[in-house]
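Troubleshooting: if your tokenizer reports a length mismatch, compare your output against this known-good record of 286 residues.
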Amino acid sequence: MSYIQTLIDLALTEDAAYEDHTALATVLEVQRGVARITAKAEGVLSGCTIAQQVFTTLDSSIQQQWNKHDADLVKAGDVIVELTGSLRYLLAAERTALNFIQHLSGIATATHAFVSAVQGTNCDITDTRKTTPGLRLLEKQAVVHGGGTNHRMDLASGMLIKENHIEASGSISEAINACFKHNHDVWIEVECENLAQVKEAVALCPDIILLDNMNPSQVSEARILVPASILLEASGNIELHNARAYAETGVNRIAIGAITHSAPALDLSMRIQALKLDQAANDESA
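Known-good structure output:
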């Protein structure tokens, strides 16, 4: 995918990976070695594919043995990949590869935690557009690796009527009708902040109703008002400790912005083992 390769090229250029003065000074050009990326914490992997491409971009001759893959669960001590090749290139690629896989695995891990919290309730965990500029496709893919689902990919994917659109239109009804008139080919979702707005929205049958910043009791009341033909979504002030309470109201999905904008990176490390020059030569001829 050209998009992924462009990201990798930008990241390697940003890190001056082709001018790694430390490696150039301390590592012989002919020196080969083995590098292992290891998990230092439990989590769910994402970004393995792009990390693999990072190493290939710097040196296509690097041998890669991936023991774990995207969407796999890992625990501390698990060896994710073993790489064999030029030590200079392994070290030059290290930070860029780890930056991608740690960040994306953090998102997958955070998503998995929410998915586990609502397991058995028939409620999906979905993401939002609160993503890092330029990394949206990768971050949303990480959500899927963690067991979640994707909401809108972009502003053209669907019409989400929020409070500012309602303010501009004059009312929920006016906003929904305007969206119906504008385009029948994309779905319409409307954000409601109270039960009166829910009743108003239900009368016009949008595809999705989003309950914003309602507590579980209010969501339960809204569930009674919203027919099964309209997908019901909850968002706002939903965290791990109360996600199940929301899911048990019968809501179809919960949108969590934090799984992309606030997920801590999964702790991984890469350590190398230099091969003796004669050993490296033997490996080369094998």
